[in-house]
Amino acid sequence: MTTATAEPTVARRVHDLQDYIRQGRILDAMNEFYDAAVSMQENNTAPTVGLAANIEREKNFLAYVKQWVGYEVRSINVGPDTSAVESTLEFHAVDGKHIVINQVAVQRWNNGKIVSERFYYNAA
């Protein structure tokens, strides 16, 4: 009997990605789960294209976080090459604000990597 080594399913990759985020390993997650040419978009703003540019964007966001309070996944939906994750991020910002963001991230996958991701949330 032979066992074929299959590429991890999108479902497995999505769950692994959430584990990285829960552990605070956001930059590690970007290197592990995102394609070099990834396009990431916040609501209706112009997308940021390329892994290096998105890592810099994420570093800027992380510099605003003074202390993480929590990250909770509310639901995960997975298709053959897409996923949608509904989650809540909560943190204290360096300016003293207490921030709670309820968001949905919609991801397109190719060869085990995210090639595009768009976040939907109330930016108010």
Task: Please supply descriptive tags for the structure shown above.
124 residues, alpha+beta, 3 helices, 48% strand, globular, disordered N terminus
Widest sheet: strand ordering: 2-1-6-5-4-3
Q: What shape does the CA trace take?
A: globular
Contiguous low-pLDDT stretches (5 residues minimum) are: 1-6
What profile does the largest beta sheet have?
A: 6 strands, mixed
CA distance, first residue to last residue:
58 Å
Structural class: alpha+beta
Whole-number radius of gyration? 15 Å
| Mean of residue pLDDT values | 93
What amount of the residues lies in strands?
Answer: over 45%
The arrangement of helices and strands along the chain is: HHEEHEEEE
Total helical segments: 3
The tally of strands reads 6
How much helicity do the residues have?
25-40%
Describe the model.
It is a single chain. This protein is an alpha+beta fold and 124 residues long. Helix content is 28%, strand content 48%. It contains three helices and six strands. A hairpin with a 3-residue loop joins β3 and β4. α1 runs antiparallel to α2 and α2 runs antiparallel to α3. It is globular, with a radius of gyration of 15 Å. The N terminus is likely disordered.
